[in-house]
Design a protein that fits this description.
Layout lengths: L7 E4 L10 E5 L34 E5 L6 H10 L3 E6 L18 E5 L5 H7 L5 E4 L12 H18 L4 E5 L18 H16 L4 E5 L2 E2 L6 H5 L9 E3 L7 E2 L2 E2 H11 L9 E4 L5 E2 H11 L7 E3 L2 H10 L10 H6 L10 E2 L14 H5 L27
Parallel strand pairs: 3-4, 3-6, 4-5, 6-7, 7-8, 8-13, 9-12, 10-15, 13-16
Antiparallel strand pairs: 1-2, 11-14
């Protein structure tokens, strides 16, 4: 709307000599108004303002499904940092989402209730967005949502509605080891989680061919489910760590949560990312056995040992799978944690300009709350730094 640059005066013909000739005047100040032509009303990039900070507007209106999850909070923070407006759909209590308001400027982080099976609520969440990011995932199945409901049908529904709403960019989060026939270790037919993630990729490609798919390995960071998972007492058995073949035949390439979030934001400005897939891995590969030993050196455990998984431990995992809220151990989780990370012929986060963080640079800090004798006031230099894990050559 073109703003008026000066006052406009209305003159009328009057017959009374004592009546004023000026009936009224109106003035519209152009300060703060956008000079956007009519055919640019739907082009959000035409509304860009500012120098590129939280107080600016980048032209990106992003709907982040799964914003309340582990990775979602970092994605929302990165979007708010560049001056984007973020819509955060939620399924539970809105008070679980309130901390996300700090990610953006005042009024730039909005919340809308939705349900993954309700297409009207989904369409309302992405009606005015030009970017949709799907971070929804389940580590375990429930009576309401199975792996297929969330990772396949849910992802298909989001991609289809995004295409119908004219969304420009759709970003989907999968898994590095997603495959139609994952290795069978403890679960018959292999991990159903990894299998559903693979078919979820196919569903997204079918509904939104230009989607960008990220395939991360195990993600570590604040409140993660990788480092803290192995530090949890329920994962141990009598002070020892049960692992498949003692973890000596499993290769892991953990990636830092900040790196994945940065890669997602960088992909929004890369035209080559349209319709592309990215393997999200850390800079180094390690044997799972070496990583576990390193974690417990950080925890200052003495005489720590790894063992084979016994039938009694498997029985414990089966019973814990029926935990009513958030089961720490499930058979599917036990199966996929021993699947080696293998890169496919895709680009990586480094191709998006991301500088990767090594797990050795974060593990000591992340594991500090779980150390033995955590309340002991140590002297400077009393304990030597833990020896880092050996890095695989390839």
């Amino acid at each position: 709307m073109a703003a008026l640059k000066k006052a406009n005066v209305v003159y009328v013909r009057l017959f009374g000599p004592q009546l004023p000739r000026v009936l009224g005047a109106y003035y519209i100040n152009s300060h703060g108004l956008h000079d956007v032509v009519k055919d640019q009303r739907d082009n959000l990039t035409a509304y860009k303002r500012g120098k590129g900070g939280r107080g600016s507007f980048s032209g990106v209106v992003a709907t982040v499904f799964g914003a309340s999850g582990f990775l979602g909070r970092y994605v929302v923070n990165r979007l708010g940092k560049i001056g984007s407006q973020v819509i955060c759909p939620y399924r539970g209590d809105p008070y679980f989402m309130k901390d996300l308001k700090l990610g953006g400027d005042l009024g730039q982080v909005l919340f809308l209730p939705f349900n993954l099976t309700d297409e009207d609520s989904i369409r309302k969440c992405m009606k005015y967005s030009n970017v949709v990011i799907n971070l929804i995932g389940r580590d375990w199945e429930t009576k309401t949502f199975k792996y297929n409901d969330v990772h396949v049908e849910g992802a298909r529904r989001l991609a289809r509605i995004a295409r119908e709403c004219g969304v420009e960019r759709f970003i989907h989060m999968s898994h590095l080891n997603a495959q139609p026939e994952p290795p069978q270790i403890y679960v018959k037919g292999g991990s159903q989680f990894l299998k559903s993630k693979y078919f979820g990729e196919l569903a997204v490609r079918e509904e939104f061919p230009d989607a960008t798919i990220f395939r991360p390995a195990d993600i570590f960071g604040l409140e993660d489910r990788f480092i803290r998972y192995y530090a949890n007492a329920w994962r141990r058995a009598h002070g020892r760590m049960p692992l498949w073949k003692k973890g000596e035949q499993t290769i892991k390439r953990p990636v830092f949560c900040f790196n994945v979030a940065e890669g997602i934001i960088n992909s929004l400005n890369e035209s080559k990312a349209i319709g592309n897939s990215y393997d999200c891995v850390g800079p180094n590969g390690y044997l799972l056995s070496d990583l576990i030993d390193y974690f417990y050196r950080c925890l200052r455990w003495k005489n720590f040992r790894r063992t084979y998984i016994s039938p009694i431990f498997k029985l414990k995992v089966m019973y814990m799978s029926y935990a009513p809220s958030t089961p720490i151990l499930t058979l599917d989780k036990l199966d996929r944690e021993h699947v080696s990370d293998v890169l496919q012929d895709y680009e990586t986060l480094e191709d998006l300009g991301v500088k990767l963080t090594k797990i050795e640079d974060r593990a000591v800090y992340e594991l500090k709350p779980y150390r033995l004798y955590g309340y002991y006031e140590e002297r400077l230099g009393e304990f030597a730094d833990p020896e880092p894990p050996p890095v695989l050559s390839s």
